Amino acid sequence: MKAIPQYNFHKTKYGDELLIDVVELRSIEKYIRRNPIHRLTYYDITLITEGNGEFIINDYSYPVHPNNIVCSIPGEVRGWNEDRTLNGYALIFEEEFLLSFFNDPHFLQRLPYLDPERSSFVLHATPELSVRIHQLFREIKTEINNYSKKDHHILRAMLYEVLMLLNRADTVSEPQPASKNKAVNRHAHAFTQLVNAEFISQRNTKYYADKLCITANYLNEITQNILGVSAKIYIQNKVMQEAKRLLSYTTLSITEIADKLHYNTPSYFIRSFHKHTGSTPTQYRDSQNHEK
Length: 292
What we know:
This protein is of the alpha+beta class. The chain folds into two domains: about 5-170, Sandwich (Jelly Rolls), CATH 2.60.120; about 180-290, Arc Repressor Mutant, subunit A, CATH 1.10.10.60. It is built from twelve helices and eleven strands. The strands form two sheets. The protein has a six-stranded antiparallel sheet with strand order 2-9-4-7-10-11. It has a five-stranded mixed sheet with strand order 1-3-8-5-6, with no helix packed on it. α4 (about 125-145) runs antiparallel to α5 (about 150-165), α6 (about 180-200) crosses α8 and α10 (about 255-260) crosses α11. The longest helix has 20 residues, at about 125-145. It is globular, with a radius of gyration of 19 Å. It starts with 5 loop residues before the first strand and ends with a helix.
């Protein structure tokens, strides 16, 4: 069976690492046509501005029209109708971009339209709300394009405003997933909740599989299908996300951070961080301080 193509976030598209972007659907049409069925490793909020078509997420088909907003989370299988005549704008971002600044690791999952167990993936905005969200998309794109040094705080504020405004949109109803899919989604959701609570002290995939009363192999199959990465990589990403937050927003020393994250030695933490990010913890902290 052919693997589902996966798109990762282009983190250095604008030079330094930036985990947010706005793209026009027409500008990525060639990629959609090449792989109409695909998976993303990041969040995607797509506002439809023109045309009518069909959008598929996790085997459910939705007719989409202007003022509809398609909300997808990392790992979901998405599909565009190849004969579509749609245009719009996609606000894309990595979880880390927002949560590295927040103390609440569950913030995104608490938004009803981004809950992994949500029954609908599509929202409908009033024309007035659609115009306001579209304007914010344009402002985010302008902020990214017009400044050589991207102001992450301004961009986070605008992203937060978009996410809050989406709570005012109506849900486009859709039947609940089949019971088998619901069970798989529950396991994935429970896994992410457990990791958020215990990733600092527990890094072993088997630990989480035992907690969920499933095998480690099955857990990896679930996370690969739903989240787009193995359980081990998902846990590692959470650890690195916390490391970046501590480096950016605290004055803890590298040794103190290594100890707080339960690394055996500071040198092991430094090697792990460099392997994951391409920079040392000190280099990363310096780059964040310079940005501020």
